[in-house]
Amino acid sequence: MKSMIRSAAKLFFLLSAALLMIGTAAALLTPSDIVVNRRTSKIIDRSPALTIRCNAENTDSSNSSDAEMVLFGTVPVKEVNLSFGERKNVIVGGTPFGIRIYTDGLMVSQTADVETKDGKKNPSAEAGIQCGDNILSVNGERLKTNEQLLACVENSGGESIRIEGRRGNEKYSVRITPVKDIHQNQYRIGLMVRDSCAGIGTLTFIDPSNNTFGGLGHGICDSESGSLMPLEHGDTVRAAISSVRKGTCGSPGSLSGYFTDNDSFGTLSANCEYGVFGTVADSDRYNENAAVLPAAFKQEVKKGKAQIRSTIDGITPEYYDVEIEEVSYNTSDHFKNMVIKVTDERLLEKTGGIVQGMSGSPVIQNGKLVGAVTHVFVNDPTRGYAVFVETMMSNEKITVQNDSDSAA
Fold first, then answer.
1. Is residue 219 domain-shared with residue 363, that is, in the same domain?
2. Nearest to 352 by CA among 268, 230, 195, 245
3. Are 339 and 369 within 8 A, CB to CB?
């Protein structure tokens, strides 16, 4: 009897474990979320008990294939779709670079009240203009600088003007009547706008096959509105790190630097949530001091030891030890795919861990480029987030394709 009870308990335990594994697998994987190298095996291990079997007949001629997730080699769990991509070898970054962005139209940072003889008024807010909007034109005149907008408003003489703007992907047109500021005796519409920005970040990779690059691992946003700066055009220049402000709990540190010259070495084509992307004039010069490594697919990233390549003084990057503590394939914040912890005593001594300005620093594991640093934890500067390089490179491909379409 005891033997039967033990057997029944063992069977119950195994069935429970199997159901838990099935549920976990179903939650972790959704259709079209796995990209693999076409040259890899037709059977992909996800765990000691879980494999994904794909249709070998479709893998040589198609960019995707139906596949089946199987438990213990026999129990079907879920159907998934595999996307096939060629593995790329890229030049690993880690060097600082200067970024100059010129916006598409003028970005609204704030709306502000205007003191008039009749009290406070805000014509722009009353017309529905919001922070993060892009002001494209006034009375049909395309805007490129803040000075243009000021001149158009002042020259209106208080008469109604037509403003064309964009919010997200939607364009709109509104009429606004400027009011006179009693303090400066000038017409105003209650807007604070930006036409450009500049800063320093870290280069992540260069693809020598087409001279495209990616950096930062996250987009450049307006400091007031928090919205992505809309890129009309931009370029990159050489930069150097001059000082470090060490990070502490509750106070993120930062790198300070400067542009070493004003000559552009590349052009920007996109500023999006996964970073900045563009094209360098010549990728060969980066081969002299940088490693060329294969770019990892996201399912190859594992918890464990890794390194980041970053520059905290001058222009020469160094490797620093980190630990990948968490790997998330389905996070809603796509630039928070990994949690990394700095373990290198040299970096901890100099910076306290991850600091602002290190965004884009390449993350390397098992001889592959797996991602880029994106954020630091405010309350623990030894830890931060990183994005998969696969995610960055997927966006880079879209960017290059869009540029080609526009040129045609």
1. yes
2. 245
3. no
Query: What is the helix (H) or strand (E) element at residue 293, kind and residue range?
Result: strand 292-294
The angle subtended at Cα 353 by Cα 350 and Cα 356, nearest 5°, is 95
Q: 176: domain range? A: 113-189
List 137, 225, 283, 359, catalytic entry = 359
Lookup: tokens for 140:
């049909």
- Residue 352 domain-assigned? yes
Specify whether 325 is located in the same domain as 202: yes
Least Cα distance to 277 among 400, 93, 153 occurs for: 400
Rounded percentage of the chain residues whose pLDDT exceeds 70: 73
Q: Render pLDDT for 73-88 as a digit per residue (tens, 0 to 9).
A: 666 666 665 555 678 8
pTM of the complete model? 0.75
Token pair 């220049």 is at which residue?
237
Higher pLDDT residue, 40 or 307? 307
Name the catalytic one among 33, 313, 344, 380: 344
Query: What one-letter code names the amino acid at 38?
Result: R
In the set 124, 207, 218, 283, the catalytic residue is: 218
Among candidates 247, 244, 204, 245, which has minimal Cα distance to 382? 247
Please tell me whether residues 256 and 295 are part of one structural domain: yes
Number of domains composing the chain:
3
Q: Which residues pair with 357 in a beta bridge?
A: none
Tell me which amino acid residue 295 is. A
Residues 240 and 167 occupy one common structural domain: no
Q: From residue 251, how far is each of 159, 226, 245, 378 by CA, in Å?
A: 48, 19, 10, 6
* Dihedral-angle region of residue 276 (phi above 0 means left; psi in -120 to 50 means alpha; beta otherwise): beta
* The pLDDT of residue 372 is above 60: yes
* 359 among known catalytic residues: yes
* 218: annotated active-site residue: yes
* Residue of 361, 98, 353, 364 whose CA lies nearest to 244: 353
| Paired tokens of 120 | 């406070």
Whether 375 is catalytic is no
- 386 & 359 share domain: yes
358 and 266 both lie in a single domain: yes
The single-letter DSSP state of residue 227 is P
